[in-house]
Amino acid sequence: MASDSNFVAYVVEQIGPAGDILCKKMFGEYGLYCNGKFFGMVCDDKFFVKPTQAGRAYIGTPTEAPAYPGAKNSFLIEEQLDDSSWLCGLVQCTVAELPEPKPKKKKK
Fold first, then answer.
1. Of 84, 71, 60, 79, nearest to 31 (Cα)?
2. What is the mean pLDDT of residues 1-25?
3. Contacts (Cβ under 8 Å, ≥6 apart) of 71
4. How far apart are CA 40 and CA 18, in angstroms?
5. Is the C-alpha dihedral spanning 28, 100, 48, 86 positive or negative?
6. What is the pLDDT of residues 45-59, one digit of tens each?
7. N or C: fewer beta carbons within 10 Å in the chain?
8. Mean pLDDT value across residues 95-107
9. CB atoms near residue 49 (< 10 Å)
């Protein structure tokens, strides 16, 4: 089941103050980037964030689930979706711990 575009727009609006947010449609769902780093997904109208030590410390006891069948577990964010400042804090501490994206190779 694909995510509702209104739900995706709501998540992007909630995390907007965290940085330069980009949402890309991927395989019928949505990948989320902050300041050029891939940090989360919206799948089946659920918001998932890549697991990091900083994110785990920020959340406390995160709920973990795969974003799609066969995927590694991510942090499933449900109850805090309406708390923009909390979400932005989570996105910022997660992104700070993620490595810089690899430079794209130029096409010949």
1. 71
2. 93
3. none
4. 13
5. negative
6. 999 999 999 999 999
7. C
8. 85
9. 24
